[in-house]
Design a protein that fits this description.
homodimer; 6-stranded mixed sheet; 2 helices; 7 strands; PRC-brl_dom (chains A, B)
């Protein structure tokens, strides 16, 4: 996956796609995507931050709009900062079924909601 | 999966989502999705047609625009016909990396291409 330059990726192979900061530092990897069934848009990348940013091993849903695919690096690039990630609304068990949580999360990250 | 009414689905759980015809008949299931990394749009659902339409067990990439998610049925609905599926451009090993094949396939199915 990480060296692929194919424009398409299988949903089976998303696991492990790397995520880099603007400075090129490796900051984590995508664990899985959450897809809006009605529109077919990827809504969130659930990222694993392995000790990144002092968070310890953690998984956090990041709105897709915060990630840009970079074919040169073979991964995603983001301008996320530690403050943004740590300040995001806390995830709960049913976050993916909670429009209020979703709205607050998108507002926090400053990206448009995906469902309109 | 098939009974879920969540608006979001994990890329890990797409496998097995049912696909129904307009008449409600079960015609196959999604094996995996092919996602356009740059835009985050689902480009294709690769569907398994288990003996559907006389095709025998077969996997065919269907443009996302041919599928509509129906929360009531908990699956996707399509108006695909046997003639459309059988007449689609033949898949080859590198179809997911072949814009010409992709263009012909979208033209065949009468849906807009996803990459513009």
């Amino acid at each position: 996956m990480t060296t692929s330059t194919h424009p398409l990726v299988s949903s089976d192979n998303v696991n492990g796609t790397d995520v880099y900061g603007r400075d090129g530092a490796h900051i984590g990897a995508i664990d899985h995507l959450m897809i809006d069934k009605a529109s077919g848009k990827v809504a969130y990348a659930v990222m694993g931050f392995g000790g990144f940013l002092g968070l310890g091993e953690d998984y956090r849903p990041v709105p897709w709009g915060k990630l840009t695919y970079d074919p040169v690096q073979g991964g995603f690039v983001t301008d996320l900062t530690e403050a943004e990630v740590q300040g995001a609304p806390e995830r709960h068990d049913r976050w993916y079924d909670d429009r209020d949580w979703e709205r607050r999360t998108h507002e926090h990250y400053g990206v448009p909601i995906y469902w309109i």
